[in-house]
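Exercise 4. Each item below gives a protein and its sequence. For each, produce the structure-token representation.

Item: S-(Hydroxymethyl)mycothiol dehydrogenase (Rothia santali).
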Amino acid sequence: MQQVKAVISRSKDAPVEVTTINVPDPGPGEALVKVLTCGVCQTDLHYKKGGVSDDFPFLLGHEASGVVEAVGAGVTNVEPGDRVVLNWRAVCGECRACAKGEPQYCFATHNAEQKMTLEDGTELEPALGIGAFAEKTLVASGQCTKIEGDLDQDQYAAVGLLGCGITAGIGAAINTGAVKRGESVAVIGCGGVGTAAIAGAALAGATTIIAVDIDDEKLETARGLGATDTVNSRGTDAVEAIRELTGGFGADLVIDAVGIAATFEQAFRARDLAGRVVLVGVPEPGTVLQMPLDEIFSRGGSIKSAWYGDTLPSRDFPMLVDQYRLGRLDLDAFVSERIGLEDIEPAFEKMQQGRVLRSVVDVAEV
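Answer:
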């Protein structure tokens, strides 16, 4: 067992705190990872606010890069010294989704069996089974995706973001939305996930990419990451603007990266006949949508939700890192600031105010 510094959320809405935790040595199927960098994600804030569960205390952080320090018995996919990006979809290979050849939907993903604890033995619940606002963390080995070749500290700060939000957005476009070359795509909401969806649409070859938001600065950032057109919906009807930019028909694919009833209805009405709608913004519990069923029928097409962008880390992470290295995917643009473990509470405030795409915690040097 080792003792390390980490950031925990002790109770609902209480400020996070840096404290000492106990990290067990890896058991069968587990890996001990020295954390290099970790992004501050909206999901961590959901944990802090009690929006995920009430299993406090939580060990926060999950968008992380790191170095495998030790592995337990039976681990073959990684070994000590491997540079990795952590993920929360360590597929089981046995559930009904995996049995159908759709492991990106795995319903029984693996986490470490052993619990990390506070010094007094209180068990911690790691965010998304990772808990990477810590100098070291214990995960299931399948939560480690090996990254070949060397990167510098700045590059690991960017690549680590693939662990959650950036991949969710890119995957919503490429995997869930199945963007084809030459198609039109509209993305409603240009936070980290929405902007990543725009980058994903550009990577997939969309030729008309419309960014919709109420913040001009976010729209300008979206343009830098692939948007061909922008719509400030604070004073413009987003549906009509998207139709105008697509020859009066609507977009082939519209992605709702906000997750409220109003933006989902905009997405539904802004798509072409037989077009696709993808919901990647996470709705608040109890959110209700009321729409005439005959309209849903008459428009045809598809409506999908994107769970982690239908991402399979072992397949997608290495490909996206390659695109980053080739200069086709600007992950650096998502890193708004670099901070320390003690700066996470202010980072949450900046995120809620829309002042950053991602704050990234530098935990250890490469």
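Check: The domain at 178-305 is CATH 3.40.50.720 (Rossmann fold).
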